[in-house]
Amino acid sequence: MIEFSEAFGIAFSLLISLDQELVEIVMLSLSVSLAAVLIAIIVGMPLGAALAIFAFPGRRFVIVGLNSLMGLPPVVVGLVVYILLSRSGPLGVLGLLFTPTAMIIAQVILVMPIIAALTRQVVEELWAEYEEQLRSLGATPWQALPTLLWDGRYSLVTAMLAGFGRAIAEVGAVMIVGGNIDHVTRVMTTAIALEVSKGDLALALGLGGVLIFLSIGVNALAYLINKPALLRNPINKPALFRSPIKESVK
Amino acid sequence: MKRFSPIGLLLSLSFFLLTSLAHGEGYITLASTTSTQNSGLFAHVLPQFKEASGIEVRVVAVGTGQALRLARNGDADVLLVHHRPSEERFVADNYGVDRQDVMYNDFLIVGPAEDSASIQGMSDAVAALKKLAVKSAVFVSRGDDSGTHKKELGLWKVAAVEPGADAGAWYRETGSGMGATLNTASAMNAYALVDRGTWLSFKNKGSLEVMVEGDPRLFNPYGVILVNPDKHPHIKVTEGRRFIEWLTSQSGQEAIAAFRIDGEPLFYPNKL
Amino acid sequence: MTDQSILPLELRAVNFEVQGKRLIKDVSCTFEKSLRSIIIGPNGAGKSLFLRLCHGLLKPVSGQVLWQGGCDHDIARKQGMVFQRPVMLRRTVRANVDYALSIRGEARGRREAITDEVLQRTGLSRFADSAAHSLSFGEQQRLALARVWALKPQILFLDEPTASLDPPATHLVEQIIEAIHVAGTRIVMTTHDLGQARRIADEVLFMHRGRLLEHAPAEKFFDEPQNDHAQAFLRGDLLWWHRKHPLHKPGSSKEIFQ
Fold first, then answer.
1. Distance between CA A183 and CA B42 in Å, rounded?
2. ipTM of the complex in this document
3. Exposed, middle or buried, B169 (CB in 10 Å: 0-12/13-18/19+)?
4. Across the interface, which of B60, B182, B234 has its CB nearest the CB of A181?
């Protein structure tokens, strides 16, 4: 198909030439999504871990509710945030509409349930394994919380990447609250949407390729950072390369 | 173990907050339509205004209905759309002041090259639409309450056709912007109503060609309105007025006239 | 660690239930200082539950678990427990011991010194910087002992610590338990290995179907058990209990495999 080959060529030349506008858009996409993920981690991870450890009335409903929030449609979130931030809305005085800040807010709402729900899952499983031992050692649940988060870090990295993926790829929320304003709130996804509406499908695909490249880059970086630690812990090595567990004395 | 530097993020986050706050002065928000944006007019004209006045114009391009709503909510300072009845109602309801004509162009009926309904070359838009209905030729409508959509519905009314009754059969409503609708028409080899600005700059025409043009009923005027500062005290009145003045002044109108694609102008200024 | 002794530990008429089923029935006993107590009994007798009730991991439905003086929090810190399967954090051997000490609020310098000492005493020094999960089962169990030893508990509960280990590993573990005892910790251990019980016990508690049926000094118990079930157990007849056939008669294979 003509468009795919054309798109590939465009993506390539865009990347090589480091087109000024493209760089601007990419930096904005990364800033907004990474900031949103960071906030979601700071708030969502302890929340998810606490949900895993502490029992309270209605816990099951909260878990079901949290899991359901993972499926929030981005365009609906965008609409709600718009209504809140609009000048005619309750938070209008802040003047945040059509700024990157508004986009970060919308994406935090989208990403936090994912991070919290996945953290809860990981921590719950670890807690089942560790609870008796940790309580025996005298650890309070509050002391156990950071321990569980740290010990589950490999699985939690995946949760973070899932959150990042959701943020960098969504267009519905940032389009409404950001307004896709040139040089101000235009990110990769809204730029792609714009090019599609202009009929420039090849350019849109090309930008899409750049976006996918970006995502691969972030994931590869995360993997490389984890890699030395991963290999050091033999539990993560494929069974073929593990030495047989011996019951005898060493 | 650091997955990414939190310091670096904090810095870039604060940088962005600062820059968005730093833009506190020196810009206005213009609510306009996707068709105007997609034509490329703003990219051509607005930098000239910035040079002349130092004021940045931030364009939020959405459907006509949404642009009106944004302006009504006070989320924009100036409104630029192309549906006269809606504009007049906006001012009558006291949401806007100082409505002025800016420019105009026209609508076109476009369709597939094979033209199964044989309307190419006709200059009577209403008669052409009647023919489409009779032949049940596939027609893609925006269906989104935009200026274009309302114009289209007005034409159907004059043609005494109720396309809604045949929705899904030959009349397809996409509920989306001009670009998406054209993409759909191109893919389906169907007929559609489109404004000249979008048409000339559209890059995915496929086998679509101009079928009907020149009917005075296809006239498409654009109006600019300042959002009423009495309703929304935070509106940037001075800068907004400055922009409207410039747009309707000699320099602004000349800038509009100078915007062409392949030598063809997309918009005709009112005041020249 | 602190001066005040939390022993003797007294249990008064302790009962424990799960979903309406009473699993520990009316158990009363006292643990005096400086002995090694072994709790034996067939599978399902409630030995593990009993340990957890003593240690405070489970709360009795009725009855009391009374320690000598002090509040609950203080008391928890003076006990330790080793489980049948060692639970290690996904960190190095050294970090696991260090973690237990940091929970207790020890300063870093002290933590390092104590960690090195216990690792040396349990023969694990050369694994200090290996991942804890890369150790064999027996080594991990020794690490569990090292970790709990670092906390210098006054009483140590052990739930069948050598159940999954082979003889050489078992021997090493028993040596460590002995060393811990000599250093001043009271030992309360469950086992289903009668040989181990004979080796270690100063006193024996025999449990069956949730009841404490006999509590006597080791020699007396092994030479002249008073209780019927205890006698059957020592003979090797009482492997497990079944509602319908509480006592398996010797030679009746039909009943044994009900």
1. 13
2. 0.83
3. exposed
4. B60
